[in-house]
């Protein structure tokens, strides 16, 4: 229902307004995880598509996932810092550190499965994604068919790349295949411009050359494929499938502001934002917070007094981002107002909320959450509907 609007609310339940690449509107983006290093800058991801339901995905409880996951590709070029070894922007990594003649004779799938690049993806998941973010990723089981590339940095006629059966076996973070990295519906348009210093690895095996396995590389800025020994250093752009059912809601710029409420709190209207090139922040469901509950709400004039129990406690030194928050929805379950309404100084307390302008059918939900700031993933309990006297 969001497709026809140029501007949309800067907050939505689930991941409803997020779509894949559109030729006229370009990409939408999601913030997820943070690179290593002193500042730990957040990582921005392109949403390539909303995948159709299939049998190749399992959730964090190893259950078959039959929804429509979001395929994300890192918008940042990543790699290993040459001194610290930390995963940072604009650094490089090798696909495999040493040529291995025995591996070179192996099946195409095993080249990826045994590679340093795949181990780097596991390292990335542990170092750059929080536990809640890792739980929101789907394990992927996939085979790559034989594929004839559409373009190349130097050659106009290319031999087909071999099939790789069962190449992804439960991978949660991985590299795109050469075929995926040439799909025009993912935004990789067919141009033949070679952009040096922007090369990034795919997972696709090509051939054996001088006892060194070669794989394909895809160039950013819509260049062509380039073949290179695995001991060369190029950028990494990890990919992953996000489980949309783990997102309570998403928010764009201005949609979710962290405050330090004292006394009676007020909710802010949810603003509109441009749909084109929208950057979304995730609020993921944290089951460990579902003990949070509400007491009987009472009304003091135009103020609601909202008792709550079992909230994670705010602490300026150790837990400065804990909040009690409120979200107002209209009759079509679209967010209209949002705000932090209390600092939980103890597990039990009371929040005081000035009622916003209500319309028939509006509903109010209260929850506890960890508000981590711009570009950072938030974590929240289930939404508790408030019974307003």
What are its keywords?
elongated, 389 residues, mainly beta, 37% strand, 7% helix, 13-stranded mixed β-sheet, 30 strands, single chain, five-stranded mixed β-sheet
Care to describe what's here?
The chain is mostly beta strands. The protein has helices at residues 101-104, 108-113, 116-128, 131-135, and strands spanning 7-9, 11-13, 29-34, 42-50, 57-58, 70-74, 78-80, 87-89, 93-94, 139-144, 164-171, 199-209, 212-219, 226-229, 233-234, 239-242, 247-251, 264-265, 268-269, 272-274, 279-285, 293-294, 298-300, 303-309, 322-329, 335-342, 349-354, 363-370, 378-380, 384-385. The strands form seven sheets. Strands 2, 3, 4, 6, 16, 17, 19, 21, 25, 26, 28, 29 and 30 form a 13-stranded mixed sheet that branches. A hairpin with a 7-residue loop joins strand 3 (29-34) and strand 4 (42-50). The two termini are 33 Å apart. The mean pLDDT is 89.
Number of strands: 30
Stretches with pLDDT under 50, minimum 5 residues: none
- The 3D shape can be described as elongated
- Level of helix content? under 10%
What share of residues are in beta strands?
35-45%
Secondary-structure-derived class:
mainly beta
Distance between the termini: 33 Å
Total count of helical runs of at least 4 residues: 4
Q: Quaternary status of these chains? A: single chain
């Amino acid at each position: 229902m969001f497709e026809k609007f140029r501007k949309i609310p800067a907050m939505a339940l689930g991941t409803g307004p997020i779509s894949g690449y559109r030729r006229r509107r370009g990409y939408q983006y999601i913030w997820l995880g943070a690179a290593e290093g002193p500042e730990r800058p957040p990582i921005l991801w392109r949403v390539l598509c909303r995948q159709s339901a299939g049998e190749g995905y399992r959730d964090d409880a190893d259950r078959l996932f039959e929804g429509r996951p979001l395929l994300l590709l890192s918008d940042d070029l990543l790699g290993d810092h040459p001194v610290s070894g930390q995963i940072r922007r604009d650094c490089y990594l090798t696909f495999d550190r040493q040529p291995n003649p025995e591996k070179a004779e192996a099946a195409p799938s095993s080249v990826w499965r045994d590679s340093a690049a795949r181990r780097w993806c596991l390292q990335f998941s542990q170092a750059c994604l929080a536990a809640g973010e890792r739980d929101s990723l789907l394990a992927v089981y996939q085979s790559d068919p034989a594929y004839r590339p559409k373009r190349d940095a130097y050659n106009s006629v290319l031999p087909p790349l071999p099939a790789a059966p069962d190449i992804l076996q439960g991978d949660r973070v991985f590299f795109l295949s050469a075929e995926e990295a040439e799909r025009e519906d993912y935004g990789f348009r067919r141009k033949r411009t070679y952009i040096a210093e922007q090369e990034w690895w795919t997972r696709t095996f090509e051939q054996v050359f001088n006892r060194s396995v070669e794989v394909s590389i895809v160039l950013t800025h819509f260049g062509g494929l380039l073949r290179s020994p695995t001991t060369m250093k190029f950028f990494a752009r990890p990919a992953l499938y996000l489980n949309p059912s783990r997102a309570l809601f998403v928010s764009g710029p201005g949609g979710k502001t962290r405050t330090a409420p004292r006394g009676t709190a007020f909710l802010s209207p949810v603003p509109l934002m441009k749909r084109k090139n929208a950057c979304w922040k995730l609020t993921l469901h944290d089951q460990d917070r579902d003990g949070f509950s509400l007491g009987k709400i009472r009304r003091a004039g135009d103020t609601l007094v909202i008792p709550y129990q079992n909230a994670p406690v705010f602490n300026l030194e150790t837990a400065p981002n804990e909040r009690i928050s409120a979200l107002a929805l209209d009759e079509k379950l679209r967010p209209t107002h949002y705000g932090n309404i209390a600092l939980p100084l103890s597990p039990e307390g009371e929040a005081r909320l000035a009622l916003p302008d209500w319309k028939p059918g509006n509903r109010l939900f209260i929850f506890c959450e960890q508000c981590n700031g711009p570009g950072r993933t938030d974590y929240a309990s289930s939404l508790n509907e408030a019974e307003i006297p």
